[in-house]
Amino acid sequence: MKRDPIYGMMAEFDTPTALLAAARRTHQAGYTKIDAYSPFPIEGLAEEIGFHNNAVALVVLICGIVGGCTGYLLQYWCDAVTYPLNIGGRPYNSWPAFIVITFELTILFGGISALLGMLALNGLPMPYHPVFNVPRFSSASKDRFFLIVFSSDKQYDPAGVRSFLEALQPRSISEVPS
Amino acid sequence: MNGEYNTTATTPAPVIEPGHTFASVTDKISSIVLTRPASNGWFLGFGIAFLATMMLLYAIGYLFIRGIGIWGVTIPIGWGFAIVNFVWWIGIGHAGTLISAILLLLRQEWRNSINRFAEAMTLFAVACAGLFPLLHVGRPWLAYWLFPYPSTMGVWPQFRSPLMWDVFAVSTYATISLLFWFMGLIPDFGTLRDRATRQWVRVVYGMLAMGWRGSARHWHRYETAYLLLAGLATPLVLSVHTVVSFDFAVGIVPGWHTTIFPPYFVAGAIYSGFAMVLMLAIPIRKIYGLEDFITTRHLQNSAKVMLATGLIVAYGYGIEAFMGWYSGDRFDSFTLWNRVHGPYAPWYLSLLACNIFIPQLLWIRKLRTSPLGLFIVSFVILIGMWLERFIIVVVSLSRDFLNSSWGQYYPTRWDFMTFFGTIGMFLAAMFLFCRLLPMISIFEIRTLLPQAEGKASEAAE
Predict the structure, then answer these.
(1) Strand pairing partners for A12?
(2) Residue B188 Cα, gap to closest chain A Cα (Å)
């Protein structure tokens, strides 16, 4: 696929409230390929741009269960199958003694999958991204709030998007080269 | 947020001083890393800590040549300083996870100012703790035998042993603490990348930020993952010191074989951990001018946590003493008698003073708001918690069932060098941390500001 030279149109806002309102109106106007950027998580912002559920919890659940099973089966296989030792006459499969490590591996697998799953679903690490081409975007990690309409949106036409964003009274508008 | 304080006449100190903006908190915290030159005091402090770290390496080097015979451990007291220090350090780490995970789930917003360096403290404390069992195995180069791996000998670990549980608990704890800390740092790495003026600094923080851009979709997944990690770390932190206490409680030595150990170890861990948090927070906020973010509210709350956990620890001592009498077991009651009248009695009495009596001063509001007073009480508590582990390990082992196997424990200079060396290593790591990473979570502080409230109702209009 040929790459579009323009990645999208970006508007800058001063407050989280303004960004929330702008995101809502943009989404209501029928733009679907949009995103918002903020220096801290804003409650409800993802919902305003039409993003409701994420798969992180499911990933962690699956990996946690896998971790727990791994923990138990590891101990069972070591102490009851391949290298059975008689310790004080206890059964080879002494499940009460296996609880701790089963638990620890559940946490370990779940915890690692929470971080890696979040990064993978977010497409990180990503050393290059077009939004960083906008010089003002460096404030997105400080005190400014940004809204972008991607050029891949089917309603996208540069003049129309610009005038629509201008109606939201942003601080500035810039076209994002890809 | 402040409902619980409304019963008192005085208004509570704010979590963050008024008047700050997104830009001012960002600049204030990131400038410590990016622009503030290292002072002579920093070099002096780091230099001393670094020398102590070198002393640790010297002690370890000599240990590798001669073996653990250079330590005071011998039969019957085979655990000595190594296990005392291990339990002490790992306990200190617990406050970091409590602050970052449990207080997050409980929506205690004040934790946002202190979680970052408390988590760093956890990591460094766990690193110090991990050294001791590793060295104590005698042949550290074979420590990997503890892990289940397909060896040519066909031998596998024995998972019914609490020592194996400990290996898994502590290594999981270290891993999860590192992940939690790193995850909290990702958005702040993005901030440092965007603020840095020098190219190589930008590149380093940029690589660590991994292209974080603060997208709403990313934040959504980030918050889910952060909460889940907190939810996983919460039972983990309670389990770690429980498992450490199993090392003792599953054994049959008098003074170890009790069911009160797990809860009382966990409470003691948080007790000593908060003492360490205060001992670090008080100088840091003063030196780096962070009183706006680490306010007297934080000091007060930490003091209250210490008071509460200290009382749980006192209850634990009480139950130990009660069970020594009530069980009618000769060995248990002798253990109790021996603690008060035996050769280690001065240490036991100092322990009671440090952990039970002196901390009761924290009931005084004036002390809870006085940084110097809190610093001193925290120091006393840290000493007390070290003594507690010493009493548990050494006194019980020195007087077990047979008089013929009684003994005394004499730590050597190598024991002390290793112990003080780990304190040096811990402090050296903290000194570096203060200069290289934002020691307060910038993005979480931004969410504490009143203007961070995105008003969905207003936005609708």
Answers:
(1) A146, A172
(2) 8
Three-state DSSP state, A149: strand
Task: For residue A84, say if its preceding peptide bond is cis, omega within 30 degrees of 0.
Answer: no
pLDDT score at A117: 93
| Interacting residues of B44 by C-beta distance below 8 A, sequence separation 6+ | none
Using the predicted structure, report yes or no on whether residue B435 has a pLDDT greater than 60: yes
ipTM of the complex: 0.92
Of the residues B112, B224, B442, B443, the best mutation for testing chain A's interface (the one with the most A CB atoms within 10 Å of its CB) is B224
Nearest-angstrom CA–CA distance, B94 and B410: 29
Residue B155 one-letter amino acid = V
Q: How far is Cα of residue B386 from the mean position of the Cα atoms in its chain? A: 13
The answer to whether B194 contacts A98, with C-beta atoms less than 8 Å apart, is: no
Which residue's entry shows tokens 């603490």?
A: B177
Domains of chain B from N-terminus onward: 13-148+156-449 (1.20.1630.10)
For chain A, the distance separating the N- and C-terminal CA atoms, rounded to the nearest angstrom, is 14
**CA A28/CA A164 separation, integer angstroms:** 12
The dihedrals phi and psi of B445, each to the nearest 5 degrees, come to -65, -40
Cα A24 to Cα B229: distance, rounded to the nearest angstrom = 30
The pLDDT confidence band at residue B7, using thresholds 50, 70 and 90, is very low
Reply yes or no: is the peptide bond before residue B438 cis, omega within 30 of 0.
no
Q: State the DSSP H helix or E strand holding residue A174, giving kind and residue range, or none if neither.
A: strand A172-177
CB contact (8 A) between residue B159 and residue A124: no
**Token output for A99:** 């609880």
